[in-house]
Amino acid sequence: MPATSDRHVVIAGGGIAGLAAAWRLQQLRRESGAEYRITLLEASDQLGGKLQTEQTDGLILEAGPDSFLSYKPAAIQLARELGIEDRIIGTRDTGDGTFILREGRLEPLPEGITMLVPTKIKPLARSRLLSARGKARMAAEYFVPPKTDEADESIGSFITRRLGREAFEHMAQPLLSGIFAGDADQLSLGATFPRLRDIERKHGGLIRGMLHQRREAANNASSGPSSPYPPFVSFAGGMSELPQAIISRLEDVEIRTGSAVRQIEKSAVGYQIRLGDGESIASDAVLLGTPAYASSGILQLLDGELASLLKRIPYVSSATISLAYREEDLKGRQTGRGFVIPHVENRELTAVTWASNKFEGRTPDGLALLRTFVGRAGREGAVDLPDDELMSLVRQEISEILGINAEPVQYRINRWRRAMPQYVLGHVDRLKRIDQRLERHPGIELMGAAYRGVGIPDCIDSGTRSADRAHELVTV
Ligand SMILES: Cc1cc2nc3c(=O)[nH]c(=O)nc-3n(C[C@H](O)[C@H](O)[C@H](O)COP(=O)(O)OP(=O)(O)OC[C@H]3O[C@@H](n4cnc5c(N)ncnc54)[C@H](O)[C@@H]3O)c2cc1C
């Protein structure tokens, strides 16, 4: 039913958070029979934000994310609502997992490492990833007393304190900071991996916590169906299936691309939104799914203090470089799903994924697809290299690590400038202060990757919750 009331909710940013909010509002408006307008404003000429997939010559090339976590329910729930749950695919079971680069060699991550914690002694003992001393220190985690004060600490300090510096530098750091492209000695434990801190507090240590969880899982083994999905999932046609499904089902939402929001001011009845081209739009609620630095500029006139809090959330740039090879040129050099590269290896590459091993159907027969990542906190320069220089740097490192010198039959470079928000020490406190400022502005919502989770399910969750509050506001 088209909306006839003059109440209006505006969403800025057509990434997954903004699209999830638009979908939720449309659903709530339908279910409640309420009448209000919904408008989605996106600055660029395409929707989906970081979820961009290119299909070319039988290849499925992900520009940004290639998967999401299934145990956080928001993305699967959304796919279900959109009728595309049957398009979800899990990672292939290639049996040879993830590798980590150690002094130029690719070493498998020992079997039984769960949440960074060794749960099986033999594979750890046999592994060449850590020295005998490093392994002994890791196993001694069982006896390390828990930290009892409430103060936050960096994820680097936490892992070093619990598992030792070697386990941190050569195992935990590359596994953890892949998610944020961050510096683990700067990232806040409380904001990035609160579960690790909670396990320490509750059980006295990580190994003790894992053993407890194993006992619980064994006791509950027969008490219910387990998840039908492996931990990482995607869509058969790539990640952009999700935003595309939302867009095709947004029937009563006005969508405007090429419409950048510049600023928001208070008006007599709500807010006045000014766009880049000078147009002004009245709205009762404004849901900002824009990066924190963009939201900072947008909110500057409305609340300078809020704007300055948002401006202090740092961002890092990165790039993904996809390379398709003829299988015959690889001579069996494909290693599992890929590998991560610790900062101490001093390389530009931070991670490499065999996309064609990870998910079914990413290449036509006879081709293999490699996805590489450059750019991280403190080392972003490579992202801005001209294409030819970036390609030769990537190919040089691929040659040194994997011995692959063949010419790729196809490649794509996708640069993501100021794309990865960093939850540095102080983030949790900053969020509290942001929330306090927001209380002064009913109807203004902040959602998306900058705040309480960068993963796709987290962003969907934040969009959904913002939509719930906005719906309540305009329907009272
Ligand atoms: C290379 C890479 C790989 C990743 N891999 C994974 C992964 O495998 N799994 C996973 O779960 N997560 C992954 N992430 C993280 C995840 O993709 C993002 O956190 C998430 O997609 C962010 O969604 P969002 O809606 O918050 O923001 P975005 O997708 O950034 O959307 C924000 C939108 O706002 C628009 N905008 C900006 N300014 C304005 C303005 N003034 N007015 C209007 N619109 C504006 C932008 O154009 C953009 O479309 C990855 C991220 C990157 C960069």
Helix content: 25-40%
Cα(first) to Cα(last) distance is 20 Å
Give the overall pLDDT as a whole number. 94
Structural class based on helices, strands and sheet pairing: alpha+beta
Shape, principal axes of CA atoms? globular
Broad CATH class of the largest domain: Alpha Beta
Bound molecules: flavin-adenine dinucleotide
Name the descriptors.
476 residues; alpha+beta; FAD/NAD(P)-binding domain; Polyamine Oxidase, Chain A, domain 2; protoporphyrinogen ix oxidase, domain 3; 3 domains; seven-stranded mixed beta sheet; 22 strands; 36% helix; globular; binds flavin-adenine dinucleotide
Describe the structure.
The protein has helices spanning 16-32, 74-82, 121-126, 132-139, 155-163, 165-180, 189-192, 194-203, 206-219, 241-249, 292-299, 304-311, 355-358, 387-402, 427-438, 456-475, and strands at residues 8-12, 37-42, 53-56, 59-62, 68-69, 88-90, 98-102, 105-108, 113-114, 117-118, 232-235, 254-257, 261-266, 271-275, 280-283, 285-288, 315-326, 338-340, 349-354, 367-374, 410-421, 444-446. With 476 residues, the chain is α+β, with helices and mostly antiparallel strands. The longest helix is centred in the C-terminal third of the chain and has 20 residues, at 456-475. The mean pLDDT is 94.
